[in-house]
Amino acid sequence: MLQFVNKYTTTVQVTIMWYTPGCDDGNWTKKGWWVLNPGQSAIVHGEDLADINRYWCYFASGWDGTSFWSGPISRHVIFPPFEWCEFRANTTSVPVGYRILDCDDIDDLIVELTP
Question: pTM of the full predicted structure?
Answer without folding.
Answer: 0.95
